[in-house]
Amino acid sequence: METLDKTSKEKQKNSWKYFDSNKYQFHVTISSASSSIDPTITSEEEITSKGVVYMEDLEKRKNVYGICGECNEPGTGKKWCQPCNSKRFKENFQNWTSENKDIDELLQYSQLNAVYYTKLLEWIPYENFQCVTYIDEGGFSKIYSADWPDGHIEYWSIESQKWVRSSNKHVVLKSLNNSSDINIEFLNEIKSQLHIYFWNIISYYGITRDPNTKDYMMVLEYCTDGNLRNYYLSQQPEYNSKIYDLLAIAKGLMNIHNADKVHKNFHSGNILFKNFYPYISDVGMCQPADKEQSLEGVYGVLPYMAPEVLYSHQYTKESDIYSFGVIMNEFISEEIPYKDVPHDSILAEKICNGSRPKIFKGTPKLFEELIMKCWDAKAKNRPTIEELYQTLKKWDDEKLNNDSEIFSQVKEWKQIRENEYKNNSNKNKSKNLNVHSQAFYVSRPLNFQNLSEPINSTDFLSVQSDSEHLEKTSSSWNKKEGSYL
């Protein structure tokens, strides 16, 4: 009998299923976090190629992820058992602390409830990082890159009785200014995202602390190809590739909205590329981390902010759609929005009065119309993210069809762009990088008073041609914070 039991246990060690990532999610979806979401609206592709696996569906979990060799229950993700791993994490709580009760509780909560390693946050001692290098600074944070030799946890090995880690990860350290007394609301924003299935959203690995400044630092996934602007300036992607990239960005935003979340700070600096694929970062991170710094007004990058956000300081899904329109126009035209004017109260008032970024003259009509819909001053008139996704999906499907409207419009656009590059491509690129000294493309606090109620304008493109007037009439310039991204 003892021999049979031993043999049985050995068989259980190999009970994880071969996982098909083209067919199913990497981990289960918690119904309580998504009960209001109708999966049929996430698009046909989302259902067929990334099948949802719900926590309570034991049979499907068994078929998709297999059986845990320790508790004989279905897995909660690829090579992951939440109940068993939770016990391991709990036993280790006594061996670490961030020296902040609220942060400890957040990390412990994530570890006890993690259905997969991407939902896990670790306390990572600062000395575990190497080659820490300063990159840039924003309104409430400083950004560093670093090497993490250990890497993040991937799964528990029953055979070796230890965690298997990714090893040799290049990561980003986001230092939160004045965070020794961290804001509980900031931590709650992170906590609220832990059980939502986000696709192409930047992963958080954990938290560390700068031993010199005593500021806490978020440890994030590093994206090798930079942000959207870095990407189009260095890679010069062709139009069909841009359609696919916009579709992928829309897919990420759709997952955020379908989880009843709002990004709140959606701009080209928060769209990062890794292996030529776009990822969305900083979801919901639009507030200072410290308790003492109260934020009056809003936080973000002015050219991407919807007029109603500037006017009423209210973030909504519709305001994300406005931002998506600005991002789409920038990506297509490769022109930085409002780069030749100060980002001050004059520009904010112009935006509320209906002014919008310039649309490049060769932009396909289909894209121009979609961009303008996203920019409608009446938020209710803007398309939903599902409508945006379906439109971009249709264009992506038809972009190689000679008989399609998108094919003919893209063909015409390519000819216009080729003629431009032949004339003087270097001059055009140099002009694109010539940014006004009071134009800011990092997130910062904004608090404009007495703005007009948002309206549509019959001449909403006028702000670009009216830049000289804006410069002359600007009575005061905001102090620059951070560097150009």
TrEMBL record:
Pfam (any one): PK_Tyr_Ser-Thr
Location of the Protein kinase domain: 129-400
One GO molecular-function entry: ATP binding
Transmembrane segments: none
Record keyword Kinase present: yes
PROSITE patterns per record: PROTEIN_KINASE_DOM
Signal peptide: none
Keywords: Kinase, Transferase
InterPro entries given in the database record: Kinase-like_dom_sf (IPR011009), Prot_kinase_dom (IPR000719), Ser-Thr/Tyr_kinase_cat_dom (IPR001245), Ser/Thr_Kinases-Pseudokinases (IPR051681)
Xref: PANTHER family: SERINE/THREONINE-PROTEIN KINASE TNNI3K-RELATED
Protein name: Kinase-like domain-containing protein
Species: Rhizophagus clarus
Lineage of source species: Eukaryota, Fungi, Fungi incertae sedis, Mucoromycota, Glomeromycotina
